[in-house]
Amino acid sequence: MVDDNSSSKKWNKFDHNENDAVEVEDAIDDSDELDADTVMLNIQKIGESRRRQSKASEDNRVQEILGFPFLPNIRPLIVSDVESCEALEEAAFHDPQHRCSREKFEYRLATCPELCMGVFCTVNPNNAKDLDINTLKTAKPVETGRNDGAVSVLLAHIVSTRTSAEVVTDSAMDYPRDFRTARPNTSGVGHEEAGRTVAIHSLAVHPKLQGCGLGKLIMKAYLQQINNSGTAGRVALICQDYLVNYYKRFGFKHNGPSQAQFGGGGWHDMVFELAGPAKK
């Protein structure tokens, strides 16, 4: 179950303005003297310039919201992050049925933390008294011996397990209730260590920072990490219909309506086929 909420639709929009029009006119001279290669090169330059402008705009929005420099730290999630993950989903998902339970977080972060990733930001609480982000309350001190009380605040996360199926199923979304005592897992639900599909169960971005590119940041980093590991053949997720095009832009293929009934159903299957690490 994946949701960056409705504001994620903003991710693929580029706000055109008069400066953009000038940029296009300056970059491409519409004359017979330009050959096809030159035109293509100029088009690529325009695209790169727009991407830089979009990235700068996203960074500026994050800076404005946080009120201090945003230096993201992307790392695997661990069991001590459970409270922050729980707080993030409480803020990000309006429907309680779509949230991951505390026990599921405990199971997934204890069983396969290498498949779970978070975007954190170091915050000095004295400089963030007006920061209305609920994961600030659950943040843990940074591990640098600093004496200013700085903490590492979770802003976005991806939580996943492995499955032998090619799409996300209800069994993959579930977890063995005896996971604290039973080793190995023989229940037929939850994480399958030998599975070749990484099933993303949650992509959550704090609503205060949606539309700032954090969903794009963490998803691209995640897909690259899983691909480079060479331990999976694909990444799969389920999403609501209004997010189908959002995930297509990362390279996910839409496989139609999902059979999964988690949270009341109504999901769509999305699958990203991995190319595998580059051959040396």
UniProtKB/TrEMBL annotation:
Residues covered by the N-acetyltransferase domain: 137-275
Keyword set, alphabetical order: Acyltransferase, Transferase
Taxonomic superkingdom: Eukaryota
Gene Ontology cellular component terms for the protein in this record: cytoplasm
Pfam families, per database record: Acetyltransf_10
Listed CDD domains: NAT_SF (cd04301)
Gene Ontology molecular functions: aralkylamine N-acetyltransferase activity
Full protein name: N-acetyltransferase domain-containing protein
UniProt lineage: Eukaryota, Fungi, Dikarya, Ascomycota, Pezizomycotina
